[in-house]
Amino acid sequence: MRFKFKIIYYWLKILTLPRFDSREDIEKHQSKQLKTFAKKVLAKSDFYKRFVKNGTFVLADLPMISKTEFMSNFNEINTKGILLDEALSVAMEGENSRNFKSEINGITVGLSTGTNGKRGVFLASEDERAIWVALVMSRVIKPKFFKRQKIAFFLRANSNLYSSVESSLFEFKYFDIFKPIAELLPELQVYQPDILASQPSILIDIAEAQKNKIIAIQPIQVISFAEVLHESDKIRIKQIFNAKLSEVYQCTEGFLGVTCENGTMHLNEDFIHFDQEWIDDQLFYPIITDFSRHSQPVVKYKLNDILQIRKDGCSCGSKLIALEKIIGREDDVLIFSEKKVYPDLISRRIALKTDSFNKYTITQTGPMELLIGIECEQTNYDSLTNDFQSVLVTLFEEFGISEVKYDFQNNVDYTTGNKLRKIKRLNYGN
Ligand SMILES: [Zn+2]
Question: What is the pTM of this model?
């Protein structure tokens, strides 16, 4: 089946999903989906097939895993016989050459960085990409028939996953956030998107440019993803663009949720089963089992995000879990002489350069000062400080930033229970 037809096929399938009238309906749907998932997917995974008995499995018997176990068992977990070393080198080659056509036997391979900044890879087949697109179309961007919508997508990497949607309904243009925003604004002005999609820290910059009349665009919808959108920023973006604002909760591991018409974040429980590890009576870590994935099954996978449940649900009537907010992804942006450097850009560059640390933190402690903590083997420490400094110096030069003072320490300050915020800016009183 051609890719476009696949998208339409899955889109129609999603549109014809029954609306869940109760939590029981959702549970019934999930248990049916999980059974099919066991037969069609888990039985093909060397890691999971031992848990499948008579074509079914008991979710409680499966191990809970995090990114560390997910990556160390990569070869056994994936159902395509792809080896981690091969996948990593293909993904890194794609990223370094910035052509992003990273594929092994038709499976797209992407590079990811997690909360500890370590390298990871994710796999997506053509069907999985089609499902992703269909989900975005049906949940976030409503296609308008007879009018092609232009979407400006600000991304840190143009993985095949995103660039694949060119059709009579949509046209995607990708803006590479490895470039300084000032260079991207004129391009955006020329493109005149109907829909603007980006992480909030960049949306803010684009909104400021609009306010200062550097650009004049009229998007009908603004989509925020990949970082927490703070309430004050939300209001600002809405005011400046006077457009519908949608928030997408998306990470490498899946498309987890999206805001409804009321602005409430709902989890995509019709594709992902969520377990909760409760921190208190409102906060929890999500543990996800994604039954729409088949090349690299994501099963009882604990995310580092801290979510706050919305106890009274949502007045839109949806029975899907409603969130008050996503607490745990408050990554900060570093700012030197009013120039902003985004955290995922830094973590990505570091991941490309080195992987011989356990953890690191980069903290802006003053207007031009950085404190870098590296938790690693003592023998690697000196070469790591050199690697970190050279990555940062090169990156900052690209933004026209120089004279940053670097301090290093051979440990990571970390309070148990808090998410490790690997890159952050302290409130140092400016
Ligand atoms: Zn709602």
Answer: 0.75
